[in-house]
């Protein structure tokens, strides 16, 4: 067996991260007929999707950060300022993102992760179903993964 020498680095570098993602995506695509079918379609590209809400004073009232890929909307972050909660702003942000994902990016499904003290009930009210629960992530907290069909 030939022992190869490697140099390891731990610095954060956006270009390297993108290179790593592209290399992994290429490897995955080569190994998966379903991913090969996405080649050349709009669903092949990971596309950022963001929705922002500002109040009458121009202050950030809430926002949603997500991306679309492979016919899925993946909600990364959804936040509403405390004094705007309960007025439906979170619902409006989520609804707008789902419509954009469906109408502009041909998404058919959505997914989100949330902790037990955050918003699993909110997402259930919007048609999401729990598909996974990870206990103690982080310690003492449950993480929920929820999905929804967007059709």
From TrEMBL:
Pfam families in UniProt: Acetyltransf_7
Which UniProt keyword terms apply here? Transferase
Record-linked SUPFAM superfamilies = Acyl-CoA N-acyltransferases (Nat)
One GO MF annotation is:
acyltransferase activity, transferring groups other than amino-acyl groups
Indicate whether Transferase appears among the record's keywords.
yes
What are the residue boundaries of the N-acetyltransferase domain, all occurrences included? 4-151
Official protein name in the record: GNAT family N-acetyltransferase
């Amino acid at each position: 067996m030939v022992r190869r020498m490697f140099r390891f680095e731990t610095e954060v570098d956006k270009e390297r991260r993108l290179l790593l993602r592209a290399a992994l995506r290429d490897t995955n695509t080569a190994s998966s007929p379903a991913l090969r079918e996405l080649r050349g379609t709009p669903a092949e590209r990971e596309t950022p999707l963001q929705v922002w809400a500002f109040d009458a004073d121009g202050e950030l009232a809430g926002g949603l950060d997500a991306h679309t890929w492979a016919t899925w909307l993946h909600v990364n972050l959804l936040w509403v300022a405390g004094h705007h909660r309960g007025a439906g702003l979170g619902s409006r942000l989520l609804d707008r993102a789902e419509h954009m994902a469906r109408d502009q990016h041909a998404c058919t499904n959505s997914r989100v992760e949330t902790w037990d003290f955050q918003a699993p009930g909110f997402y259930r009210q919007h048609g999401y179903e729990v598909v996974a629960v990870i206990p103690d992530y982080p310690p003492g907290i449950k993480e929920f993964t929820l999905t929804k069909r967007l059709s």
